[in-house]
Amino acid sequence: GESVGLHLPTLSVQEGDNSIINCAYSNSASDYFIWYKQESGKGPQFIIDIRSNMDKRQGQRVTVLLNKTVKHLSLQIAATQPGDSAVYFCAETGAAGNKLTFGGGTRVLVKP
Amino acid sequence: EAQVTQNPRYLITVTGKKLTVTCSQNMNHEYMSWYRQDPGLGLRQIYYSMNVEVTDKGDVPEGYKVSRKEKRNFPLILESPSPNQTSLYFCASSTHRVVGTEAFFGQGTRLTVV
Questions:
Q1: CA separation (Å) from A70 to A51, B9, B53, B78?
Q2: Number of other residues whose CB lies within 10 A of the CB of residue B15
Q3: Contact A102 B92 (CB under 8 A)
Q4: Chain A partners of B23 at a C-beta cutoff of 8 Å?
Q5: Of B92, B97, B105, which has the smallest distance from its Cβ to A97's Cβ?
Q6: What is the mean pLDDT for each group of 10 consecutive residues in chain B (114 residues)?
Q7: DSSP-based helix, strand, coil % in chain B, nearest 5
């Protein structure tokens, strides 16, 4: 597959454990924050988003937390599975919502 | 099946030879955008389009052109490619007014300029 990053931070997780992926953002005026998953050889896949007026949002097995005080975003994956192995990116939309700025990405490796 | 289709998937070209990477979506999405992905730099937005005939620059537009003559297609044009445009390119589309939310990405185009 295509290489998406040579020196990405890596999170190794035991199958069945919970994963927490962190992201710091820079634009305090951004309206939405988004998490993507990118598997090897594929394009990014939308996971979940959160609007700036919220601090928590839950999806299926995933939870996103937003701490605007310290400009921090996190993605929690419950009961991590082998299929969760991928690179995860956070992104912010800016105040107008028409531009997307991505973070550097975190590689998640799930150990059986 | 809902999808974003990019062509070609792989392309090797020479400096200065004009090329076009096509992008087509079958979901009637209004919003489309192009990104490049480079090791150590992550994904960066090149151009985006909020609707037909409406395009605007992203963070790294230099050396690229786009057009949006019809809703489903959003081609990326490199008039005079240079080696620093060697990269992995992704097209994306979304129906949401906020870019990136519930977006669908294509499979990517690996471009090498020699």
A1: 16, 40, 39, 40
A2: 11
A3: no
A4: none
A5: B97
A6: 94 97 95 92 91 93 97 97 98 81 91 98
A7: 5, 50, 45
